[in-house]
Task: inverse folding
């Protein structure tokens, strides 16, 4: 029997005017879009959700993706040369928190998401041994840290959320992946995503899009009214980064 309270809503209905600041749309420089044609397809698909503003954040990951401001800005320029005129985009990066990042601090300026906000990540296998030192050093250099997809770090999963609380107390902001609202990464990650939301620990949300399949899945995410209400302030705070 139909019940009003069982009605579900499409998450993407919240995204009109949103700036996606964690994605891998730039062509040919990491595990995201392989070429300009694919990048344009991704941008076109985002447009169906009312998203036309982007801050691109390719991986900067030592031996795997040794990107620099030069390689990232070159890929951005290649895309901007052919993209529709109404698209607005800029370049940042998703920095792996490791020793190579510490080495970069004396060599180059990190590409920031907005203002002093820098997007960082860690390995999914284990946190860096010197995580506290890395956070402290980055903050001393003036970086306000947004930790990408905290719900995906299984080594932090525990009922008390103690490890997450410690990171929050150290001044880290949390960015949820949109696809974590579904079972895309697994039920355990989906469960943790909603637990962090319920405990008001999520500050921002973004797509972490790598390929068209991700946006097709995102398009189909349906949520309960209560879940949508939890997400509305997170979406609005994310928009506020670029107000």
Result:
């Amino acid at each position: 029997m139909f019940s009003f309270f069982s009605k579900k809503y499409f998450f993407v209905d919240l995204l009109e005017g949103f700036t996606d600041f964690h994605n891998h749309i730039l062509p040919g420089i990491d595990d995201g879009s392989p070429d300009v044609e694919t990048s344009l397809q991704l941008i076109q698909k985002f447009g169906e959700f009312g998203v036309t503003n982007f801050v691109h954040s390719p991986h900067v990951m030592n031996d795997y993706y040794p990107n620099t401001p030069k390689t990232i800005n070159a890929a951005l320029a290649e895309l901007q040369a052919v993209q529709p005129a109404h698209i607005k985009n800029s370049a940042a990066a998703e920095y792996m928190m490791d020793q190579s990042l510490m080495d970069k601090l004396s060599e180059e300026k990190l590409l920031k998401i907005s203002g002093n906000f820098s997007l960082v990540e860690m390995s999914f296998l284990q946190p860096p041994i010197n995580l506290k030192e890395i956070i402290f050093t980055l903050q001393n250099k003036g970086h306000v840290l947004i930790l990408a997809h905290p719900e995906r770090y299984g080594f932090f999963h525990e009922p008390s959320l103690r490890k997450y609380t410690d990171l929050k107390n150290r001044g880290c902001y949390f960015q949820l992946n949109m696809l974590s609202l579904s079972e895309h990464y697994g039920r355990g990650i989906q469960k943790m995503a909603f637990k962090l939301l319920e405990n008001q620990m999520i500050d921002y949300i973004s797509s972490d899009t790598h390929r068209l399949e991700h946006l097709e899945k995102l398009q189909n995410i349906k949520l309960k009214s209560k879940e949508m209400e939890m997400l509305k302030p997170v979406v609005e705070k994310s928009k506020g980064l670029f107000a």
User: Anything to note?
Assistant: The first strand starts at residue 8 and ends at 10. The helical segments are 36-47, 69-80, 99-104, 131-140, 162-169, 187-198, 212-219, 225-240.
